[in-house]
Amino acid sequence: MASWFYSSAPAHIHVQLSTKGEEPVIEEWTTSEDAGDVFTRLEAATAAEQPVTGRARARLKIWAEGALPSNTATALKPLVLLLNRQSGVAAAIASLKCEDHSLALCVGAALPLMPCLHTLNLTGVGLAALPAELCRGAAPTLRKLVVRQNRLTALPPEVGHLSLLALLDASHNQLTALPSELSQCEALAHLWLEDNGIGRLLPSAFARLSSLRSLLVAFNPLDSLPQLVPLSR
């Protein structure tokens, strides 16, 4: 989890790679360790778990303990090396859950290396803004984006790049509006926006959402709902 106090001790980065029915691969390293040495350890651990590779069913979870350095991206370098050099492992990852604020801000660089990623979960990591890089990096394959229980006041226009997105859960944030680019997510079937500060839903954000089946907007200061595209059945 994110650390909110200063410490001179190196932070610990944890990764867990798991597939249903198999023992998970769990590794950790400190930010003071050599990235090449950590990569070698990760490579050996994932090679021993052959059932994880070769199919896009693996779940990857990352989190940190301790104060991360200002250049947080270096903390994930061993993981990026693994995804770059072990295409079987990279292609096996179907979902990613990040449980640390600082790591969530820089994990976007790793997303293009996971060609079968369909779920990204950033629940409750304290994000005040969703990095545009996350949307761009996950655009080719992402189907589920969960950013609930953060401090988001807006969604970036780049969310429109997620052409395959079927579920967007942005509930329990501080959103006041939706970007018109959301209408480019034509595969969107479930849009969950409960407990935000949205006072008005612009029809332009829904103009092309013909696949929409559920729209949850309870606990928003909405005076009325505009005429939207009828929800699909």
Describe this structure in words.
By secondary structure, this protein is an alpha/beta fold. It contains 5 helices and 9 strands; from the N terminus they run ββαβααβαβαββββ. Strands 2-1-3-4-5-6-7-8-9 form a 9-stranded mixed sheet.
Q: Strand order of the main beta sheet, please?
A: 2-1-3-4-5-6-7-8-9
Low-pLDDT regions: 1-7
Level of helix content?
10-25%
Number of helical segments with 4 or more residues:
5
Question: Gyration radius, to the nearest Å?
Answer: 19 Å
Q: What sort of overall outline do the alpha carbons produce when their principal axes are compared?
A: elongated
- What is the rounded distance between the termini? 40 Å
Secondary-structure-based class equals: alpha/beta
Largest sheet report: 9 strands, mixed
Assembly state (oligomeric): single chain
**What string gives the helices and strands in order?**
EEHEHHEHEHEEEE
In terms of DSSP E residues, the strand content is 15-25%
Mean pLDDT, rounded to whole units? 88
Q: Write down how many β-strands occur, each being a DSSP E stretch of 2 or more residues.
A: 9
